[in-house]
Amino acid sequence: MQLIKVTEEKQIPSFYYNTPIWELISYQNLGAEFKSYTSAQLLVGMCMDNRKQLRIPENFAYIIRTGGANLRYSEFKVSYAIAIGGVKHIALIAHDNCGMVNLVSKREQFIEGLCQNANWSRQRAEEHFVNYAPLFEIDNELEFVLNESKRLSQKYTGIKVAPLIYSIEDNMLNVILE
Prior knowledge:
By secondary structure, the chain is an alpha/beta fold. It contains five helices and six strands. It has two domains: 2-100 and 139-177, Beta-carbonic Anhydrase, Chain A, CATH 3.40.1050.10; 102-137, no CATH class.
């Protein structure tokens, strides 16, 4: 697996040339001037983490934000963006230091937070964690986003899916090559 930190246009892999993926990377990393769009050019699947903010023009993308950029439970929304929105590209963006990695280590904090902030009983919060954490936990951000992009590519064979990783430190997108 190789990570490409794009700081110049020539570093964007040529297979993304003249695609919305190319434009996304150019907007985010290279400060490209915004174009005007009347419809979405791609679907962005990214983590719900509040530390991430994309620099993109209005109407450029559908965006689905889920923990860990996990689209497994958002497939109807993905299908909608493809079928109704007409998008042919998906940018799947994980990020470093993701909270969905090693959720088990956050078990007590999660339970206490629901008890204190949502007035849940401890039993209800524990059951909620036990039932849902395994569905959303990811082992490794890079491996997860690469595998999820492969899964989506197999499900939607006519759609180009790009696995990317967002660096929290510098707000840059990195291309993942296998």
